[in-house]
Design goal:
By secondary structure, the protein is mainly α. The chain folds into two domains: 8-68, no CATH class; 72-129. It is built from seven helices and no strands. It has helices spanning 8-20, 26-35, 44-53, 58-68, 72-84, 92-105, 110-121. α2 (26-35) runs parallel beside α4, α3 packs across α4 (58-68) and α5 (72-84) crosses α6 (92-105). The termini are far apart.
Length: 132
């Protein structure tokens, strides 16, 4: 409404009324958004950021993710298992690097990325000095 130059008093009145009748409920929106699978296998940190960009406060976003049971390692493992199918014809080191890159771009912590990629590809990252 600010972009349309609606007076602040009118905006506040309208939003208060919508919240009063239950049409504006950040907690319900956050729960629905997380449950809908809109997150497409991204890390908890990325999901929190996306909810904040949608106007949901941090506490409400955290509660929605907790209710849905979003766990970075489980999500990363599901994504990596699916992604690994497309990497089958590649050298293991190349597949490992590509899978790590894909997991990293989805916001997973480096420790989760390395652990999940190694598990899914059954790669020993310490052999031959590891990967660069």
């Amino acid at each position: 409404m600010a972009k349309k130059k609606v007076p602040e008093a009118a905006t506040t009145e309208v939003l208060d009324r919508l919240a009063e009748v239950g049409l504006v409920d950040d907690a319900a929106f956050a729960r629905q958004w997380v449950a809908s699978g809109e997150h497409r296998m991204r890390s908890r940190a990325v999901l929190l950021q996306e909810l904040r960009l949608k106007g949901v406060d941090s506490e409400t976003a955290e509660e929605a993710l907790a209710e849905e049971g979003v766990n970075d390692r489980d999500v990363a493992l599901r994504f990596a298992t699916k992604k690994a199918r497309t990497l089958g014809g590649l050298d293991r080191q190349v597949a490992y690097r590509r899978l790590c890159g894909a997991l990293s771009r989805r916001g997973f912590a480096p420790s989760v990325v390395a652990s999940v990629a190694s598990q899914v590809l059954s790669v020993d990252t310490t052999a031959d000095g590891g990967f660069e």
